Amino acid sequence: MEKLTLPVELVREILLRLPVKSVLRFKCVCKTWHSLISEPHFGISHYHLTAAPSYRLLLEFNESYFESVDTEPHLGQDSSAGNLLLFPSHPFGYESVATKMILGSCRGLVSCCYHRGWDHIDLILWNPSTGVYKRLPIFEYLYGFGYDASTDDYLLVLIPRLFAHQEPKVHVFSFKTYSWNLYDNNVLYSDFFCLRRGLLLNGALHWLVICEDEMRFVIIAFDLTQRTLSEIPLSLNHFSRRSRFLFSFSKMGECLSVCCTYPDPAITDIWVMKEYKVRSSWTKLLVIPLIYNSLYFYPICITKDGGVVGGFGLCKLERLVKFNDKGELVDNVAYNGNQRWDCGNLQYRESLLSPINVIGDQH
Amino acid sequence: MVITAKGKEILEIAEEPEYVMLAKVEDLKMDMLRIVEEEEIKKIRLKTSDEATFEVEPSILKEMKRVQSLINTEAIDTSVAIPLPNITSRNLSRIIDFCWEHQYNTENLEEFKGRFLKSLNHQELKELLLAANYLNIKTLFDFLCNSFTDLIQNESPEFIRDFFNILNDTNSVKSMHAPAFQGSIDDD
């Protein structure tokens, strides 16, 4: 019997339901499939139809490459779980002198930059799954990357260091209109000793900062739709009474998370805010023993079975580890990070969305 | 001859489908009772490409959006069987089976779906997808699409070409060795 040929509309419906990895592999099946898959609307439909998104961990590998790791299988054992990705090249060949920094990810797009000195930043929007990237003109300073669903617009948020002579403002760059907008900054803080990326959750970007006048930690949130800045209280004495100090602000699944490190016995507690903005919902997720003579544990992401992938090290990532949901070490891989621990790695969702289409038409 | 199974009747069918043979006597009894209870509900007759006529109860018909819209908008005379020239009796009985289980079998639905899928070869799977698309049955369509993805997601492009009956019109040597993860770098 002759094989049935399915019409292209039905083939599209099937392809839309495939994981990102398979879709990309099938690009070379034929010309029709290649153009079908490359079409921007295909990526958008695929993104919305994906019921169980897959996530990967992006790790700096060396000066030119990043490694993309599947954190679900054992770390470092299955060679197919990791892929080397060539980092988008710098326009002027500054790779060796410029510091690379990952600023954030949303909807499968990673925003990263080349950082030369304090006021010279070249921004790159990159889809590590497809390899497509878009380079943008130089920005003076930047801080967080997010998406406003109400306007279908990607946003860069920058909150400059607070100087006495300046009016406090939040700077938001819209990729759609290709312009900067200013919003009031009604929250006073001054913890800006270094560039730090915001965590995207519930349509807002979050940072852990020190409120200087009261010497307390506070989480500030910038709502990407409302464009307002607000504080999320952090009942510090609730969990860090004898802590060396509170640090390592991260996102564990869909919860904001902080870590407290204790000496003797050397452990790090991972706390998560189970219910968004509910102070009483802070819960201790895991206790991580500080092995390998490490001073700190930096959690990076959570695994499906409730374990945690993170790193040991002083200020750079020296060892990539995985703990199960009981706080027992499952995997560990020696790792030689070059960047500050919170700049050289990031969890991103696999998607087919293109960075090319986020820029407004006239630009 | 009238065969009754699972609340639907098949009239004048040329070939007995396999599942009828397999249906248990107990099931038939239960179904007879149900049919007696539902006797007053109006059934619609559908005629397949191989001239078999199926009587379908409204709850199943509701799933077939295309037939529904035919009845509602085109004011078709429902006393005459509606012709479905693209669908064979074998596939229609499978479709009715699926819709029925999807509606009434809340406990072992996954088990049923597994058995349903196992009974189909690739060709039949494609036929059924075309039929589900034609009749616009969302549950079956989604189920079949997802079954296709399970079948193909770990396969090679060569397998895919064979599976979908596609001619390789790409510059084969070049595309085979292109790294999948780099894609096209578009940077203007």
Terminus-to-terminus distance of chain A: 53 Å
What fraction of the residues of chain B are assigned to beta strands by DSSP?
A: 5-15%
CATH second-level architecture of chain B? 2-Layer Sandwich
Helix content of chain B: 40-55%
Radius of gyration of chain B: 21 Å
In whole angstroms, the N-to-C terminal distance of chain B is: 71 Å
Outline the biggest β-sheet of chain B: 5 strands, mixed
**Percent of residues of chain A in beta strands?**
35-45%
Largest protein-protein interface: A-B, 42 and 36 residues
What is the total tally of β strands of chain A? 24
What structural class results from the helix and strand content of chain B? alpha+beta
- Major beta sheet, strand line-up of chain B: 1-2-4-3-5
Looking at the structure, what is the overall shape of chain B? globular
Number of strands of chain B: 5
> So what's the oligomer here?
heterodimer
Task: Detail the topology: elements first, then pairings.
The complex is a heterodimer of chains A (363) and B (188).
Chain A: H1 8-16, H2 20-25, H3 31-38, H4 40-49, E1 55-60, E2 65-69, E3 82-86, E4 99-106, E5 109-115, E6 121-126, E7 133-139, E8 144-148, E9 153-158, E10 169-174, E11 179-184, E12 199-201, E13 204-211, E14 216-223, E15 228-232, H5 236-239, E16 245-252, E17 255-262, E18 267-273, E19 282-289, E20 296-302, E21 308-313, E22 319-323, E23 329-334, E24 345-349
Antiparallel strand pairs in A: 1-2, 1-24, 2-3, 4-5, 5-6, 6-7, 8-9, 9-10, 10-11, 12-13, 13-14, 14-15, 16-17, 17-18, 18-19, 20-21, 21-22, 22-23
Chain B: E1 2-5, E2 8-11, H1 18-22, H2 25-37, E3 44-48, E4 53-56, H3 58-61, H4 65-73, E5 82-84, H5 89-104, H6 109-118, H7 122-135, H8 138-152, H9 157-164, H10 172-177
Parallel strand pairs in B: 3-5
Antiparallel strand pairs in B: 1-2, 2-4, 3-4
